[in-house]
Design goal:
Largest sheet: none
Helix content: over 70%
Oligomer: single chain
Order of helices and strands: HHHH
Number of helices: 4
Distance between the termini: 19 Å
Radius of gyration: 18 Å
């Protein structure tokens, strides 16, 4: 049965890869920041099912591992991901422009920090879902598999 180390070792690069793929049309720094967000999101998504349903036994799989609830959540994630990332990137761009046109250096720094945060979140939402799905796929391949309905 995959443990936390295995889930992290798989989910983190899956999150990075998917976030990088989703941000290929972004500039170099934006792609790097979104990929970093994907790593964080992938790692968290890769361990969250076992945080929700702690692995005290091989029968631990419940709500967070059920095929029906995970499929439903994955469908929502996949259908909304474009709009979430677009909104986050628009916020980032708005802060970039505000920071560029600010005469106050402190406000400019604040806008730069906000821009980085929104770009990080754009990668996070992509990486999180990919990492979560990698966890469920890994668990699907175990002898106990995953339940259809939790």
């Amino acid at each position: 049965m995959p443990n936390r180390t295995v889930h992290l070792a798989v989910a983190t690069p899956v999150g990075v890869g998917y976030a990088a793929y989703r941000s290929l049309n972004q500039s170099g720094l934006s792609l790097l920041v979104e990929s970093t967000g994907g790593a964080i999101g992938g790692a968290l998504g890769g361990i969250l099912p076992d945080i929700i349903d702690p692995p005290f036994s091989s029968w631990h799989r419940s709500r967070a591992h059920g095929l029906a609830p995970v499929s439903g959540a994955a469908a929502v994630w996949a259908s909304q991901l474009d709009s979430w990332q677009t909104a986050l990137r628009q916020q980032a761009e708005s802060h970039h422009l505000s920071g560029t046109h600010s005469d106050n250096w402190l406000l400019a720094v604040g806008h730069s920090a906000a821009e980085l945060l929104f770009r990080l979140l754009a990668g996070f939402v992509a990486g999180f879902g990919a990492g979560y799905l990698s966890h469920v796929i890994l668990d699907f391949g175990t002898p106990r598999c995953i339940p259809l309905i939790a």
